[in-house]
Amino acid sequence: MLAVIASVILASCKKETNHSTPSLGKNELGVSATVTGSVTTRADAMRDAFGLSTDAVGVFVTGTLYTPHVAWYTYDGVSLWVPPSLAEKKIFLSNETATVYGFYPADATVNGSTSLVNDASNQIDLLLSPTVGLDGTGQKDYMYATTRAGVAGSYTYPLATASNATDANKVDLSFHHALSKLSFVVNRDITYTGVGKLSKIELSTNIFNMPNKMLVLDGTLTGGTPVTNLILTGTAVDINPYSLLNPSTTVSAKGLFAPLATTMGTTLTLTIDGKEMSVALPASMPADSWSPNKNYIYTITVLGTELVVNSVAIVPWDDQIGGSTTVQ
């Protein structure tokens, strides 16, 4: 009798052990993330266009044997990117090599709320506005991800891949900005006698793109209706006191807009102390354009009743040097 009872207990234990053993051939996808050109390391949180900490990115995989869905990977505030807690929201890898895609913000709608497709044609919806706040409040820094290969100075950015093979289930994602960032440093010369309150910056007399879709594959922007004015406005801010020996580099206004093939013909108008002051926007070098993943910093000096656009530079995405001009 004791022998029979012992054999039943042993069989029960074996059954329970087998039931709790995970399925062989499946590993969970591991992710780390950073922004291309960022000074943060892969153990740090990403930083968006305004230097804010990014705490979640959207990730999905494609492949013949995969049913794609978006998984949110969230930064834990210390060093790790944490996958979803529920099994049905995780991404598990099989023997087939999967292509890994990432995008930001994680809550962006994919394909207009329809299901993901199992190829490279997935898009996220963009919510862009031609009028934004002077401080960039409420704007979205739309990004797409690849991995990074090679060495500094000659990096390449192929799509990331993963599988359940040893050391192949983790990816390092490099996120690229799909939009262009415009930053304006406005300094006040001693010849300007006004209070120095900046309330509006307007770019006009050009055709500016307003796309509503971004291809997660490579950040290609499509759709939308172009506009003829881009405006940064809101509560007036103090412009910077100007020093010839030590001019201020404090940004007075900043906004995210779609890339532009040419800035030729663009007029820049600043409203300072209720008065509009205009100047032709100088060309940015080496190309007279706004490119994605670049932050164009326009440095402007207010001289009495005229403006001087001193230069265009970029930090930290990818440096661009700009021209200068004077208006009477």
Salient structural properties:
eight-stranded mixed beta sheet; elongated; 328 residues; 1 helix; disordered C terminus; six-stranded mixed beta sheet
Commentary on this structure:
This protein has 328 residues and is mainly β. Helix content is 6%, strand content 41%. The protein has one helix and 28 strands. The strands form seven sheets. Strands 2, 5, 6, 7, 9, 12, 13 and 14 form an eight-stranded mixed beta sheet that branches. Strands 15, 20, 21, 25, 26 and 28 form a six-stranded mixed beta sheet that branches. β22 (267-272) and β23 (275-280) form a beta hairpin. The radius of gyration is 26 Å and the shape is elongated.
Question: What topology emerges from the helices and strands here?
Answer:
Elements (H helix, E strand, L loop, with lengths): L1 H19 L6 E2 L1 E6 L10 E2 L5 E2 L1 E7 L8 E5 L5 E2 L9 E2 L4 E7 L18 E3 L5 E3 L9 E4 L13 E3 L7 E8 L2 E9 L8 E12 L4 E3 L5 E2 L4 E12 L1 E2 L11 E5 L9 E6 L2 E6 L3 E2 L9 E9 L2 E8 L7 E2 L2 E2 L2
Parallel strand pairs: 2-14, 11-19, 15-20, 15-25
Antiparallel strand pairs: 1-8, 3-4, 5-6, 5-9, 6-7, 9-12, 9-13, 10-17, 12-14, 15-21, 16-19, 16-22, 17-18, 22-23, 24-27, 25-26, 26-28
Mean pLDDT: 84
Percentage beta strand = 35-45%
C-alpha-based Rg, rounded: 26 Å
Helical proportion, percent range: under 10%
Structure annotation, total helices: 1
Unreliable runs, pLDDT <50, ≥5 residues? 8-25, 318-328
Order of helices and strands: HEEEEEEEEEEEEEEEEEEEEEEEEEEEE
Straight-line N-to-C gap: 108 Å
What oligomeric arrangement do these chains adopt? single chain
Find the count of extended strands (DSSP E, 2+ residues). 28
Form type: elongated
The secondary structure category is: mainly beta
Main beta sheet strand tally, sense and closure: 8 strands, mixed
